[in-house]
Fold:
Amino acid sequence: MNITIVGSGYVGLVTGACFAEVGHHVICVDNNKQKVAALQKGQIPIYEPGLENLIRHNVAAHRLRFTTSIRDGVENSEIICIAVPTPPEKDGSVNLDFIEQVAREIAEVIPGDRYRVIVDKSTVPVKTGEKVADTIHRYNKVNASFDVVSNPEFLREGSAIDDLMKPDRIVIGSNSDRALALMKKVYEPFLAPIMVTDVNSAELIKHAANSFLALKISYINAVSAICEASGADVERVADGIGADKRIGRQFLNTGLGYGGSCFPKDVAAFIATSEALGVPFTLLKEVERINQNQRARFLKKIKDKLWVLRGKKITVWGLAFKPDTDDIRSSVAIEVVRDLVAEGAIVSVYDPKGLENFTRTELGAKTLPFTDPLKAVRDADALVLATEWPEFREADFALAKELMHSPIIFDGRNHLDREMLVEMGFDYFGFGR
Ligand code: UGA
Structure:
């Protein structure tokens, strides 16, 4: 099929590459000329395992191309996906300026020649599809024939290609049988269960799913405080409750809490939507509060042990908001660095992929960046682990112990082998045990 994807950010690029990989002809449109020029040269603006190869391969096979012209994309496709950012406003509600702008741009160029499906893949509040359809009708002069469907995306950064190629489910929200039939053709090669709903329900599924996952994380984080106070081990508790299939072990990993560009924003958006609809979802406010509090709990652990932080040399391993990405947006690790810098500590930092992005920030300039994790720990009063990169588990802790001023580890993700480290003579502090 001929598919256009408007917006070459995370979701747009990965979706475009995967749609091309299964045999569709895909045009990725972005209004950022430099980004498009770079993509045309095979330069990928984000780090995502496997993405660069997938894009190169499909460009070479003439199934994927990049353009700044929305007209080019819309005229040459029967499916037009919208994958632009929906950033948060200060009050937590969603800024839909980009969505509205793209809807108008589509309206201005969509011809009356044949039927098209406009697919919203961006994360949006319930009822946005109705507004998009209304906008396109109002600004289109040729009475074009189209329907708007909602097709939320559930990919995670770091495992985006696998998540998109082999999803647990594909949600298609459509109020039109004609649009639904075309969408089923788009997803035919994916061999995943398709769940059909109305447009509003599909939009709501996305916010409700992300908020539920965030709730799971806050739940175990609150349990971890009870474990600490009672002498229980949160890891055993998480295994014990997670073994119940109705609960599941995933997203019960305790630590510094959730960050990134999805959960914090989507929980806030779901709260704002519920309030606007007159049915405030107050449980989610507690989810947010618990999440915020994890950082304060962590800082207290560090201060209880090291006492005054001013002038202390602290090494932070991990800056990205999670492993396998260079994305440092809304990363809790960065907030930990901010807390330590604010306390006057001398902070050395290392991250396998996120270091470059971090050193460009204002906070980055107030730290000492290292490209080698072991060099970063030399003379350190303590090591802080803030992102659970697998390589940290394999680090040479014998050498680290020799290099450090005092062998103290604060594991913000319960990621390291506690028993081994304690045996080696480290003072180890994690969450909930
Ligand atoms: C999340 C969802 O998992 C995806 O399904 C969704 O498509 C995406 O948001 C989105 O809306 O675009 P992502 O933000 O890429 O994906 O990353 P996750 O793996 O979900 O992690 C989010 C945060 O939760 C990270 O900071 C991670 O460290 C934290 N987390 C995750 C925990 O603290 N504990 C856990 O058990 C799991």
In short: The chain has two domains: 2-197, 293-429. The domain at 293-429 is CATH 3.40.50.720 (Rossmann fold). The chain is about 45% helix and 15% strand. The mean pLDDT is 97.
